[in-house]
Amino acid sequence: MLTGKQKRFLRAKAHHLNPIFQVGKGGVNENMIKQISEALEARELIKVSILQNCDEDKDMVAEAFVKGTKANLVQIIGNIIVLYKESKENKQIQLP
């Protein structure tokens, strides 16, 4: 689990990132979870955008990603989900 201080730090780091995944009409599927897992391993901190035509609630989408990738949910802001997972091989972010 992340502390409040760590979440603030990650939110600041994520501020300038662009979403690299979009969840649309199809919702969340295994393939998407696998790709997000790989992206988290490479980058540690990513944003996922939820499109207007997504049938699932954004909280449900975030929960599915957290369960599927074992990542930490940093925040949900508007239709953007920010996820963090410490990389095994490629550690770049040093948490406070």
Automatic annotation (TrEMBL):
Keywords: RNA-binding. One of its GO terms (molecular function) is RNA binding. The keyword Methyltransferase does not apply. It comes from the Bacteria. InterPro entries: RNA-binding_CRM (IPR001890), RNA-binding_domain (IPR051925), RNA-binding_YhbY (IPR017924), YhbY-like_sf (IPR035920). Residues 1-96 form the CRM domain. This is RNA-binding protein. It comes from Falsibacillus pallidus. The lineage of its organism: Bacteria, Bacillati, Bacillota, Bacilli, Bacillales.
